[in-house]
Amino acid sequence: MYLWRKIAGPPWLSAHKSILEACSRRGLAIISRPKRKQLQLEIACTSRSDSRKLVKEFGGCTEKLPRDWLKRFTDGQKRKPLKIGKRLVVVRAGSDGFPAPKTFGAGKPSVLVIPASAAFGTGDHATTAMSLRLLEQLTRAWKNGWSAADLGTGTGVLAFAAKRFGAQSVVGIDIDPTAISTAKANARLNRIDGVNFHLADVRKCNPAHATDVIAANLFSDLLIEILPNFKRSGWLILSGIVRPQEGQLIAALGRTKLNVVRVKRRGKWITILARGSVGL
Description:
Number of helices: 8
Mean pLDDT: 84
CATH class of the largest domain: Alpha Beta
Distance between the termini: 47 Å
Strand content: 25-35%
Strand order of the largest sheet: 10-9-8-11-12-14-13
CATH superfamily of the largest domain: Vaccinia Virus protein VP39
Number of domains: 2
CATH topology of the largest domain: Rossmann fold
Shape: globular
């Protein structure tokens, strides 16, 4: 594994972000630090040649990561459980020593174990955590049997949470084969049945039947592009949005006749709860 790095200002990133995201297949990491205008950009590459292509085209530098880089990284992370209301606890764990997934008795939260992996979404990122909390709050009083779709499913954590909150029909969609295989493995680990994971482009996702909840943790431009497909949805939980893009996305929701119900903000990230034409 090789890591490409570059220090750049916001204007440079704005001019090159879309092509970097395309090259990295959603793997571009943007690291900002308090009181610093410069940003640190990182992309993990599977081969030396890929990392050198990035250096040649965009500058920066590359380094070879040690074979056990993922274990070193996860061993150094704090693994505090993420509590989602009173119904769910998400445990972020490495490959060893995690607790057995289980569902507790009445009044006790169920546990989801999401191992650190190459796929996005262990639950502790702001966009995922806000989406999980909105999903829990939204469905708290619902009867079991509703439907959900998780677009850009990553590790599958939102799809699994929907099942634990009472969804009957759940679909998880991602364009990354690694994400789909990871999500299926996590379903087995957590003993969750009934989630259908599909390798597909969310742009082509146009449900024939109304879905009660659609969770989409995606880039803002992609969210805006696919909004017209979900006019007949019940509820939308939209995340992956940075603060400067909030107004643009809310305007797009208005054009699509989707009503903004709530906006959650955490740091630079925004998560929006919106309502479509049907719903519980």
